[in-house]
Predict the 3D structure of the following.
Amino acid sequence: MNLSDLRPAEGSKRKPKRVGCGIGSGNGKTAGRGTKGYGSRSGSSIRPGFEGGQMPLVRRTPKRGFNNYNFAKEYQIANLGDIADIFNDGAVVTVNELFAFGLVRDMDTPVKILGNGELSKPLTIKANKFSKSAAEKIAAAGGTAEVI
């Protein structure tokens, strides 16, 4: 089999409608767009949420209460079990090391350490935030949890 032998499945491809090709085609003159109006203009497409000039639902419903969207702080998470698998006794674990081993995706977003998994080595872990269980497990293993 060669690349030149490959063909799409029968009936899966249709020829595009050829508009504006004379009145005999049935799609001449106005090209199937009707006469005048928004839909006949070039570049016209009704945007999502448009209700024909009526005040849209999003704008006519009352906005009340508190929304944390503007103030929420996003954290990348790293689990203690994954950290314990990678680092040796007495190692100092920083965000740079977590990034180098692929436990966090970028350097700019703050990192939170979660207590999933077991930790039996004394490690010094430096991160932006620790869960309560993670801090307890690190202290129980003889390590320190430093908030940066």
Remarks:
- The longest strand covers residues 76-79.
